[in-house]
From TrEMBL:
<dbReference type="Pfam" id="PF00226">
    <property type="entry name" value="DnaJ"/>
</dbReference>
<protein>
    <submittedName>
        <fullName>DnaJ domain-containing protein</fullName>
    </submittedName>
</protein>
<feature type="domain" description="J">
    <location>
        <begin position="148"/>
        <end position="205"/>
    </location>
</feature>
<dbReference type="InterPro" id="IPR001623">
    <property type="entry name" value="DnaJ_domain"/>
</dbReference>
<dbReference type="InterPro" id="IPR036869">
    <property type="entry name" value="J_dom_sf"/>
</dbReference>
Length: 206
């Protein structure tokens, strides 16, 4: 085609429109018109939902943020216990949650008949020895993971279930950011404590 052709002059190429850059949401802090490019969780019962703040207000929000605000110690412990199973319901072994009252009553009766203790009609073994054997038989054998979990909780290898639960409760209260004025430097240690307690609970130590 010749450059001075009338057909050449009639050709028009449609240019590409440049896409507008996405606009950042406005800061959710009342009275602030800065760009809210930092996300912060909305809080309990609003999991997965976030507020957008500017850098100054997200820092201020995080300092005063308390996930357990409004809950007493009993509710906090219930929440931590439910979180071990992902907030999913659990049932007693042998039940699927749909068994009738008759089946549950029969299981309870069998449990009452068998309490796990060997009969000793002549008292040959003694009460203290029998109690020690019962405790040893009920406690599972320690593996390296359980030993490490007990060390994380700063407990001895022969720690009882009650001691493990008490130590866990105290550590959670000490290491949670809400107990340290919003300081999150202990979050890693808190996560290790929760995982150690979860492992010991699943292994039957508490």
């Amino acid at each position: 085609m010749k450059l001075d052709s009338k057909y050449f002059d009639a050709i028009r190429v449609k240019g590409k429109r440049s896409a507008e850059p996405p606009r950042a949401p406005e800061c959710a802090w009342e009275g602030c018109d800065q760009a809210g490019i930092y996300k912060a969780p909305m809080g309990r019962d609003h999991e997965g939902q976030y507020l957008n703040f500017c850098v100054d207000h997200v820092r201020q929000y995080n300092k005063s943020y308390n996930y357990f605000s409004g809950l007493n110690d009993k509710d906090i412990q219930r929440h931590l216990k439910d979180s071990l199973t992902g907030d999913r319901p659990t049932w007693t072994m042998g039940h699927n949650g749909t068994a009738g009252d008759a089946a549950r009553a029969a299981t309870a009766a069998r449990t009452r008949r068998w309490n796990g203790r060997a009969r000793d009609p002549f008292g040959l073994f003694g009460a203290e020895a029998a109690a020690a054997r019962k405790t040893a038989a009920r406690r599972p054998k320690l593996r390296s993971l359980e030993v490490k979990a007990l060390e994380t909780l700063d407990l001895e290898r022969d720690a009882t279930g009650e001691a493990i639960r008490g130590r866990y409760k105290n550590l959670v209260k000490q290491l949670h950011p809400d107990a340290n004025g919003g300081d999150r430097s202990t979050e890693d240690k808190l996560r290790e404590v929760i995982q150690a307690y979860k492992l010991l609970k699943q292994s039957g130590f508490c």
